[in-house]
Amino acid sequence: MFPTRARLVTGTVLALTAALGLSACGGSKSGESSAAESCVDTSGDTIKLGFLNSTSGAMAISEQTVRDSLGLAAEEINVSGGILGKKIEPVVEDGASDPAVFAEKIEKLLTGDCVAAVFGGWTSASRKAMLPVVEADDGLLFYPVQYEGLEASKNIYYTGATTNQQIIPAMDFLKSKGVKTLFLAGSDYVFPRTANKIIKQYAAELGIEIVGEEYVPLDDDDWTTQVAKIVAAKPDFVFNTINGSSNVGFIKAYYEQGLTAKTTPIISVSIAEEEAPAMGKDVTGQFAAWNYFESVDSPTNAAFIKAFQDKYGADRPTSDPMEAAYTSLYLYKALVEKADSFDVAKINAAADGVSFNAPEGTVTIDGENHHIAKTALIGQINADNQFDVVWSSDAPIEPDPFLKGYDWWDPSKE
Amino acid sequence: MDAFTTPLLAGTATGALLLIAALGLALTFGQMGVINMAHGEFLMAGAYTAYLTQQVVTNADLSILVALPVAFVVAGLLGLLLEVAIISWMYRRPLDTLLVTVGVSLLLQQLAKDVFGAQGDPVRTPGWLEGNVDVFGYHWPYRQMFTILLALLALAGLGALLKYTAYGRRIRATVQNRDLAETMGVSTRAVDRVTFFVGSGLAGIGGVAVALISGTNPNLGTTYIISAFLVVVAGGLGQLRGTVIAAFAVGIVTAFLTDWLSSSMAQVLTFALVVIFLQARPQGLFTVRTRGLA
User: Fold this and answer.
1) Percentage with pLDDT > 70 across chain A
2) How far is B76 from B84, CA to CA, in rounded Å?
């Protein structure tokens, strides 16, 4: 059983780390089980926070948008009086799109700069690389991107969606549309592989037949052979877990082979407001599942978009990971203020139920798994490359990273 | 869908693209012993030229045709610059050129990222390339036929240059025996530069074809460079005939393996097959009979 095993491993790592930490320090001062001595300085009128995003390398384009929205949130919080009266002093680092660099930099931020928390990471590989470090140093990491789930660390707050807030609602949407057959197309790495494993088991439950499954390496852009298989399989819908620029080749081959949003619509989980215009084809009519769209109609979102575009330019779109990063800084503020302390153990103790009125709607932290309850949205791309919301979950969905509440899920089964 | 038609036609198109990319590599390696890892970035330059041309020539039907000669010249000049500024200082030191051009490759990628952004830009397919022909159930895209046509034209152009022009004769003389050609009054330096210009220019044309598949992005060259080298090595170093056969062989074999297994597994197996093949025939398909590589 994967979750159990994952927890066992995490538990063992934690225990070992704690043992190492204790033996190295000769026991911690208080009775608390913190593994490392915190060096966070809370005596001044500022508090240091680490912003760790890739500003170089392949992920720079995506992660820079997250960096920008963190910058906006920090500026707003400082103007309105800071956190517990302390102004945020960002310490920025470049993860360079390299998991090893992320691990190295988060160590530096936590133990060298003594930041109170770190905000950043994008790929699952970067998060997996930072996880043991942030646990060993007993720091805090706020991770802003939807991911494949099956993880929970007491030192990480996951402010993007887990699978039951994006993948599963997308499947519910397909069911509501009367979809009978589905084709899976993804990039060949951890997120699409895991997502598709969940999709296949849920599809069996919903009575949707999977008529094909194709993966192409991340850098590979030629999808003609695979799309030919989609043409032959004639599915009602295509579930797209392709990442980044590979989507361009996929969409081009798609239309070239005579498929359209009318004949065979696509639902994607990584095409957002930034990506849609770069497809080289008119993607009007295609679908995407997220928890936030720029088109979300609320005063909070209007204020967020206006503030962002005032600061960074009127041509800049906002997207789901940006909104999640922006929200993560406000959630941190709310956490600290509820705990009345920057101490990790006290923050974790106070975490359950902390909420924030975010641009996407109200989000609430689950104290047990450190994910947040989010509303699932399905958007359909319109002629302006914005998403019209065509489906939404009735209420925010409680996060369930290990899918414990879904009896059809068997992680040991392929 | 015919299980044979799809991989054959799609694989031929991939092979055609690999051929355009590999021709320049084979040419410069055959003649000068230069392992140019920045060759992929000439493809990228061609793709960006296609994108920029579309900004100027807004008629999408026309812009790709305009982009082809422009991309040839842009990538060619870029290659010439690389040759004059860096490579000419280290002829007959293949390993040094390999290392240096890896650096140049990274530099050009970052430059593209800084100038154009990392996201990549869309390149519109012209109207007359939209659509497909139904061949036994496979919707064979016009774009793939166009790529094959481009490869054949590039090959014919290069063949004509080598066979019928004075420069071609000098190139062949230089490849066969650089020192002797030099004594006979051939300026091998000038020949090298023309070769580099032509080889890089061909990559630029390949870049336009790539742009029609995937648009532009700064990492576009790296996707093709390894496969192109595979083709050059498997074909026999410096052998155009071998390069042609190897390009289509690699393209088609990969396409069949992709159809039967998966895309990732196909790449692994294709590489494994070439390694096994090179164990049996270290010289590649055809043996080189020159002293250019000694």
Assistant:
1) 91
2) 12
Which pLDDT score is estimated for A3?
A: 46
Which residue type is seen at B121? Answer: D
In terms of C-beta density within 10 A (0-12 exposed, 13-18 middle, 19 or more buried), how is residue B289 classed?
Answer: exposed
Residues on chain B bordering chain A, Cβ-to-Cβ distance under 8 angstroms: 1, 6-7, 10, 13-14, 110, 113, 117-125, 130-132, 137-139, 141, 143-144, 210, 212-215, 217, 219-220, 222-223, 255, 258-259, 262-264, 267
Quick check: A121 and A141 in contact, CB under 8 A? Answer: yes
**Centroid of chain to Cα B41:** 10
pLDDT tops 50 at residue B235: yes
Looking at the partner chain, which of B139, B213, B259 has a beta carbon nearest the beta carbon of A221?
B213
What ipTM, to 2 d.p.? 0.79
**A344 burial via Cβ count (<10 Å: 0-12, 13-18, 19+):** buried
Query: Can you list the alpha helix ranges (DSSP code H) found in A137-245?
Result: 167-176, 190-206, 224-233
Query: Who's near B170: CB < 8 A, 6+ residues apart?
Result: B181, B186, B187, B191
Three-state DSSP state, A391: strand
**Is A234 at the interface with chain B, CB within 8 A?**
no
Instruction: Name the closest residue on chain A to residue B261, using Cα atoms.
Output: A214
Closest approach of chain B CAs to the CA of A219, in angstroms? 6
Please write the tens of the pLDDT for every residue from A274-299.
888 878 777 899 999 999 999 999 99
Lookup: tokens for A239: 């579930």
CA distance A379 to A284: 11
Model-level pTM? 0.83
**A135-190: pLDDT as tens digits:** 999 999 999 999 999 999 999 999 999 999 999 999 999 999 999 999 999 998 88
The b-or-e profile of A256-291 (16+ CB within 10 A means b, else e) is: bbebebeebbbbbbbbbbbbbebbbbebeebbbbbb
Per residue, the 3-state secondary structure of chain B, as one string, reads: CCCCHHHHHHHHHHHHHHHHHHHHHHHHHHHHCCCCCCHHHHHHHHHHHHHHHHHHCCCHHHHHHHHHHHHHHHHHHHHHHHHHHCHHHHCCCHHHHHHHHHHHHHHHHHHHHHHHCCCCCCCCCCHHHCCEEEECCEEEEHHHHHHHHHHHHHHHHHHHHHHHCHHHHHHHHHHHCHHHHHHCCCCHHHHHHHHHHHHHHHHHHHHHHHHHHHCCCCCHHHHHHHHHHHHHHHHCCCCHHHHHHHHHHHHHHHHHHHHHCCHHHHHHHHHHHHHHHHHHCCCCCCCCCCCCCC
**Rounded (5°) CA angle A166-A167-A171:** 115
CB contact under 8 Å between A58 and B219, yes or no, is yes
Q: What is d(CA A47, CA A40) in angstroms, rounded to the nearest whole number?
A: 8
Give the up-direction half-sphere exposure of residue A359: CA atoms within 13 A in the CB hemisphere: 27
β-pair type (A118-120, A141-143): parallel
Give, rounded to a whole angstrom, the gap between the first and last alpha carbons of chain B.
49
Q: How far, in Å, CA of B244 to CA of B11, rounded? A: 14
